Amino acid sequence: MSRPVRVLMWIVGLAIAAYLIVLALLWAQQGRLIYPAPTALTPPTGGFEQVTYRTSDGLDLAAGYRAGEPGEPTILYFHGNGADWVSSVVATDRLVPSGYGVLAAEYRGYRGNPGKPSEEGLYSDGRAAIAFLANRGIAETDIVIVGNSIGSGVAVQMAREIDPMALVLISPFTSLADLVAEKFRWLPTSLLLRDRYDNAGKLAGVRSDILILHGDADSLIPHDHSLRLAAASSRAEVQIFPGVGHDLAWHDAAEEAVISFLQEPIYHERTP
Q: N or C: which end of the chain has fewer CB within 10 A?
């Protein structure tokens, strides 16, 4: 074997080894990449009280709650992966004056809560939040489930398991697997990814009406994910906000769209 061929084989072998090392690191560290829980803890604001509820696997999770006015629905808000429940206070500050209650749900591993986040873990956390509201006398049909970004995955799953008043998705993805595959086309993401959050596959099983909001300048999750989600359910309507990025949830226009959606006559004349 000639020297040039040996050098070429050595380079190819080195490249393959480096690629495998990258795959191994991504496999081992994907939890930290998917769930970058913020380290800075801001104090509760907006009249919210910190509450605690227990998950089915024995974790006590601290979250934020503000009761609504009599007869008004309660927003169950699932935030994105780089935020915490206090950020949900900002994202619902126009809903509270309208009389809606808000449970700003929190996840395991976030804001000092025990446990490590994962898809199944966050579903357990969502069920515990719903149980908390039930203990406060709030019926499933008086809950509006809202999910922002990765919180859309928890919101869709919870909306399949109960019969909420409505489901609102802000800057959602069709699935985490789709999004990661689009971002890292050179990786075998179908083999690497443990958490998938298949919103598109689950949305047809949601019986409630669905509002989907997305900014067309979102560089993290392109808005065509919302268009595809809307096509997956006959109960869904989608609104695209020109020039708005992935921070849509904190824009007044998003909250105003939710208020308008919930004030439609159907929600005042609901039938079983």
A: C
pLDDT in tens, 12-61: 666 666 655 565 666 566 768 799 998 777 777 778 999 999 999 999 99
Q: Residue 272, class by beta-carbon neighbours within 10 Å (0-12 exposed, 13-18 middle, 19+ buried)?
A: exposed
SS3 per-residue string spanning 211-229: EEEEECCCCCCCCHHHHHH
With a CB cutoff of 8 Å and minimum separation 6, the contacts of 186 are none
* CA gap 130, 135 in Å, rounded: 9
Task: Tell me what the mean pLDDT of segment 174-192 comes to.
Answer: 82
For 114, the token pair is 């025990």
Prediction pTM value: 0.89
d(CA 200, CA 155): 12
Encoded tokens for 199: 């919103």
Closest CA to 76 of 138, 150, 149, 160: 138
